[in-house]
C-alpha cells in the first residue's frame, strides 16, 4: 500500500503550515478536530476563521470507503461522471449482504450465490476505476479500514454511518450519503457545516470488568441520542491515552448513536502500537514526525471549557459496566440488581436467549480475547451456557489470528456459531426466525451499536441490550439479564457455587497478526479495458441513463402529491425490503413517496390521477404523467426530506418525472440532493401559500427562463374552476448549482467538463 504512505506523507507535509496559519487566523490554540478540519480545506491554506455550527465549508477528504449496500448506487452514479479513475483513494467492502444462519462457510457460500450479481458488479466497477475491493468475507468495513487505511490526522468519508469508527486512529471520519461520496470520487469538494466541538475528558483508568464500551454507553446516557448532533466529540485525558486503539474505535463508532458528526482521539502510543502491529511502521514513523499536530494544543486540554462548546468529564476509575437498552442505545442500567427492578417494572424478559459478539463496534482481537477469557472460565468451572452464542469476527485478519491463537476454539467449545466476518445480525441479516413478525417476546444481549426494534432479527418483540463483549459473554453464560459477574455466583454442573474472575486479554496478538488471504483485490493499473456488464433483465441492478435537463420552460405540470406533515427520506424512499433494489433505479422508484400522507385525504400512496380522475399509488400516477409527457411537482410541509442523506429520495422522483419540490422548508442535505439531480428544490416565500395548492392544479412556471441566484421564481397554480394563484418560490441555488440544473444533473456537468 505504498500509495497510501505517499498520500499520508503529503497530508502531513501540508499540515504544519496549514495548522500554524489557522491558529493565527482563529487567534487561539486549536483542538485536534480543528487542526484536522483546517488542514483539509478544499481551497488549501486557510485564509479565514469559520464559525462553528454555522459556516458551510468545502473540504478535501483523503479517502472514501463504501459498503456493498450503499456502493451500488454510488458507483452507478460515478460511472456517469465520465472519469477514468476515482479522484481520491476509495475502497468497497462487501459486508452487509451476507446473512448469518448456520455459520461462516455455509452462510458465505449462500451469500455468494444470492448476491453474486451485485458482488460481481461491485468488483468489476472497482477494478475499472481504481477502487480497492474487499470481497465478501474479508471483513466489516470499519474494522478493515481501521486495520489498513485509517491514519492519525486524516479525513475520510464513507457511505455508512459508522465510518466514524476510524476516529479511534485519530481521524476525522464521517458517514455521508452516496451523492457526497460520488462528488468526491469525481474530484469535487465535499461540503460540511463546520461542526461544534464537544470535549470529553477521561480521567482515571479502566479496570476489572469495565471496558471502552462502557465509556460510550455512559456518554450516550449523558448526551442521549441527539446530544451530539452537529458536533465532533473529541476525547482526551489520561483515561484516553491509557486505552487501546481498538477500544477508542469502539467509543468513536458509537458516536453515531448520539448523533455526533464524528468523534476522535489525539495520536498516542496506543495508536502507534496498533499501526506497527498492523504492519504500518511507515505510517507510525510519519505520524511521530508531526506528533504535535496530531493532538490538540496543550492549552486546550488544560482549560477545555474555554475551547470546546461543551465539556463532559468521566472518571474511568469509578465507571461501572452498563447495559443499554432495550430499543434505544441511550437507556443505561448499571449491570446487576438495578436491572432486576427495571426489567420487572417494564416487563422486559430477564431470561437471555442469545449473546452476540462482533459488529464493527466490538470485533477486534482485544474484544474477542477478553470475551474468550470469560468463555474459558465457563469451561474450566464446568458451567453450562444458558444462552446461545454467535460471534462475528471483524475481519479475516482478526478471524485467522484468533483461530490460530485458540480463541475461536474456546467459543466453539461453548457451541457458539462463528458467523462470517461481516455485519450479519447487526444489520438484521440474521435468519433467526422463519416468521420474525410473529416471533415471541425475548431478550438478547450484544456488543453491537444499534438496538432499535427489529434491528437484529426482524422480531419487534426482541429486547436487545448493548454491553461490552466480556459482559455479553458473562451474561449469556448466566442466561439472565440481571446477572452481575462482579458479585453473583452461579451453580455449575457439579452443583457447586462458582464465580467469574475478572476478564483478561491482549490488546494486540502476542504473536502478531497473521492472515493467509485477507480478501483484498487491488484494481488493475489500467482499468480501461474492464467491461462492466449489467444484465438488462436484472431486477437488482440497472445502469443509469443521464437525466434530461428540465429546461427553462415548465408549463402544464400536474400536482403529484401535496404531502401533509412529516415527510422524511423514509417516507420518500422506504427502506426494509426495498433495500434489495438499491442498485436498480426503476425498480426502487416503485417506493417513491409511498409513505407520504396525501394532504387531501390523509391517506398514504393514494393520490388523484388528473388524467383519469381516479385515485392510485404515487409511483403509478407519476409514471402515467411521465408517459404522457407531463411533468409533475411535489408540495410539502416543513423540514421536508429530513432523516438520511439517501440519494434515492431525490433520484426516484427525478426518474419519475417530478420537476420541482415546493415546500415550507427543507432538510438541507435533501435540498442539495435535489439540486444535484438537476431538479428544482423551492420553498414558499409565504408559508400560508401551501394552503392555496389544490388537488387538481395545473402548474406553470412563469419566469424560469430568468433562473438566477437570489431571484425568487413565480409559479402559477391554475385550479380546476379556472381561478389562479401565483406563488412566490424562494431558492438557494448559486450559479454553479444553476448550471447543474441546466445540464440536467451535477454529474452531467462533470461529464461535460471532463470531455473538454
Ligand atoms: Fe455493519 Fe452493523 Fe457496523 S451493519 S457496518 S456492523 S453498524
From TrEMBL:
Residues 559-687 form the Aconitase A/isopropylmalate dehydratase small subunit swivel domain. GO terms for biological process: tricarboxylic acid cycle. One of its GO terms (cellular component) is cytosol. Its cofactor is [4Fe-4S] cluster. Gene3D superfamilies: Aconitase, Domain 2 (3.40.1060.10), Aconitase, domain 3 (3.30.499.10), Aconitase, domain 4 (3.20.19.10). InterPro entries: Acnase/IPM_dHydase_lsu_aba_1/3, Acoase/IPM_deHydtase_lsu_aba, Aconitase/3IPM_dehydase_swvl, Aconitase/IPM_isomerase, Aconitase_4Fe-4S_BS, Aconitase_4Fe-4S_dom, Aconitase_dom2, Aconitase_mito-like. Keywords: Iron, Iron-sulfur, Lyase, Metal-binding, Transit peptide, Tricarboxylic acid cycle. One of its GO terms (molecular function) is 4 iron, 4 sulfur cluster binding. Its EC number is 4.2.1.3. Residues 34-479 form the Aconitase/3-isopropylmalate dehydratase large subunit alpha/beta/alpha domain. It holds the Pfam family Aconitase_C. NCBIfam families: aconitase_mito, PRK07229.1. PANTHER family: ACONITATE HYDRATASE B, ACONITATE HYDRATASE, MITOCHONDRIAL. This is Aconitate hydratase A. It comes from Formosa algae. The lineage of its organism: Bacteria, Pseudomonadati, Bacteroidota, Flavobacteriia, Flavobacteriales.
Amino acid at each position: 500500500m505504498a500509495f497510501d504512505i505517499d498520500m499520508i506523507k503529503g497530508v502531513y507535509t501540508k499540515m504544519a503550515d496549514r495548522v500554524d496559519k489557522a491558529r493565527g487566523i482563529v487567534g487561539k490554540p486549536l483542538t485536534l478536530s480543528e487542526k484536522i478540519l483546517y488542514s483539509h480545506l478544499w481551497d488549501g491554506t486557510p485564509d479565514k476563521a469559520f464559525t462553528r455550527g454555522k459556516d458551510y465549508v468545502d473540504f478535501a477528504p483523503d479517502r472514501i470507503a463504501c459498503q456493498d449496500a450503499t456502493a451500488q448506487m454510488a458507483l452507478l452514479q460515478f460511472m456517469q461522471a465520465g472519469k477514468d479513475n476515482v479522484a481520491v483513494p476509495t475502497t468497497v467492502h462487501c459486508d452487509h449482504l451476507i446473512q448469518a444462519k448456520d455459520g461462516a462457510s455455509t452462510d458465505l457460500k449462500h451469500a455468494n450465490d444470492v448476491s453474486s450479481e451485485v458482488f460481481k458488479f461491485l468488483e468489476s466497477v472497482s477494478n475499472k476505476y481504481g477502487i480497492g475491493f474487499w470481497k465478501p468475507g474479508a471483513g466489516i468495513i470499519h474494522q478493515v479500514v481501521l486495520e489498513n487505511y485509517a491514519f492519525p490526522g486524516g479525513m475520510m468519508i464513507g457511505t455508512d454511518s459508522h465510518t466514524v469508527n476510524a476516529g479511534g486512529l485519530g481521524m476525522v471520519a464521517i458517514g455521508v450519503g452516496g451523492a457526497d461520496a460520488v462528488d468526491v470520487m469525481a474530484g469535487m469538494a465535499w461540503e460540511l457545516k463546520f461542526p461544534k466541538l464537544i470535549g470529553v475528558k477521561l480521567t482515571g483508568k479502566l479496570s476489572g470488568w469495565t471496558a471502552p464500551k462502557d465509556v460510550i454507553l455512559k456518554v450516550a446516557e449523558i448526551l442521549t441520542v441527539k446530544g451530539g448532533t452537529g458536533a465532533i466529540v473529541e476525547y482526551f485525558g489520561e483515561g484516553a491515552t491509557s486505552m487501546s486503539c481498538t477500544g477508542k474505535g469502539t467509543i468513536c463508532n458509537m458516536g453515531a448513536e448520539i448523533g455526533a458528526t464524528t468523534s476522535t482521539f489525539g495520536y498516542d502510543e496506543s495508536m502507534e502500537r496498533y499501526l506497527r502491529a498492523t504492519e504500518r511502521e511507515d505510517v507510525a514513523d510519519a505520524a511521530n514526525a508531526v506528533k504535535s499536530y496530531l493532538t490538540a494544543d496543550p492549552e486546550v486540554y488544560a482549560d477545555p471549557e474555554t475551547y470546546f462548546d461543551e465539556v463532559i468529564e468521566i472518571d474511568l476509575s469509578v465507571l461501572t459496566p452498563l447495559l443499554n437498552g432495550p430499543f434505544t442505545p441511550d437507556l443505561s442500567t448499571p449491570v446487576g440488581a438495578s436491572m432486576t427492578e427495571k426489567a420487572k417494572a417494564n416487563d422486559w424478559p430477564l431470561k437471555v436467549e442469545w449473546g452476540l459478539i462482533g459488529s464493527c463496534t466490538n470485533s477486534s482481537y482485544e474484544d474477542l480475547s477478553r470475551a474468550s477469557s470469560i468463555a474459558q472460565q465457563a469451561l474450566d468451572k464446568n458451567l453450562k451456557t444458558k444462552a446461545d452464542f454467535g460471534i462475528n469476527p471483524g475481519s479475516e485478519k482478526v478471524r485467522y489470528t484468533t483461530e490460530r491463537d485458540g480463541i475461536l476454539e474456546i467459543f466453539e467449545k461453548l457451541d457458539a456459531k462463528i458467523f462470517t466476518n461481516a455485519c450479519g445480525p447487526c444489520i438484521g441479516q440474521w435468519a433467526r426466525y422463519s416468521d420474525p413478525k410473529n416471533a415471541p417476546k425475548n431478550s438478547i444481549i450484544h456488543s453491537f451499536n444499534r438496538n432499535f426494534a427489529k434491528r437484529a432479527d426482524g422480531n419487534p418483540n426482541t429486547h436487545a441490550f448493548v454491553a461490552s463483549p466480556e459482559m455479553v459473554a458473562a451474561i449469556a453464560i448466566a442466561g439472565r439479564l440481571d446477572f452481575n459477574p462482579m458479585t453473583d455466583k452461579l451453580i455449575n454442573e457439579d452443583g457447586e457455587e462458582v464465580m467469574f474472575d475478572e476478564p483478561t486479554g491482549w490488546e494486540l496478538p502476542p504473536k502478531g497478526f497473521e492472515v493467509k488471504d485477507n480478501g483484498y483485490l487491488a484494481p488493475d493499473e489500467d482499468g480501461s479495458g474492464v467491461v462492466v456488464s449489467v444484465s438488462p433483465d436484472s431486477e437488482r441492478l440497472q445502469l443509469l441513463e443521464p437525466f434530461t435537463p428540465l429546461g427553462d420552460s415548465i408549463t402544464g405540470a400536474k400536482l403529484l402529491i401535496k404531502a401533509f406533515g412529516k415527510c422524511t427520506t423514509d417516507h420518500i424512499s422506504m427502506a426494509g425490503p426495498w433495500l434489495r433494489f438499491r442498485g436498480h433505479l426503476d425498480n426502487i422508484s416503485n417506493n417513491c413517496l409511498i409513505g407520504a400522507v396525501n394532504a387531501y385525504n390523509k391517506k398514504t400512496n393514494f393520490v388523484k390521477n388528473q388524467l383519469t380522475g381516479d385515485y392510485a399509488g404515487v409511483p403509478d400516477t407519476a409514471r402515467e404523467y411521465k408517459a404522457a409527457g407531463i411533468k409533475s411537482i411535489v408540495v410539502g410541509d416543513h423540514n421536508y426530506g429530513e432523516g438520511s442523506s439517501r440519494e434515492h429520495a431525490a433520484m426516484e422522483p427525478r426518474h419519475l418525472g417530478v420537476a420541482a419540490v415546493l415546500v415550507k422548508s427543507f432538510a438541507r442535505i435533501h435540498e442539495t440532493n435535489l439540486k444535484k439531480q438537476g431538479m428544482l428544490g423551492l420553498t414558499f416565500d409565504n408559508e400560508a401559500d401551501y394552503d392555496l395548492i389544490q388537488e387538481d392544479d395545473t402548474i406553470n412556471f412563469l419566469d424560469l427562463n430568468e433562473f438566477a441566484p437570489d431571484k425568487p421564481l413565480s409559479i402559477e397554480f391554475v385550479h380546476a374552476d379556472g381561478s389562479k394563484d401565483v406563488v412566490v418560490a424562494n431558492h438557494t441555488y448559486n450559479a454553479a448549482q444553476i448550471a447543474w440544473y441546466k445540464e440536467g444533473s451535477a454529474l452531467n456537468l462533470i461529464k461535460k467538463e471532463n470531455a473538454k
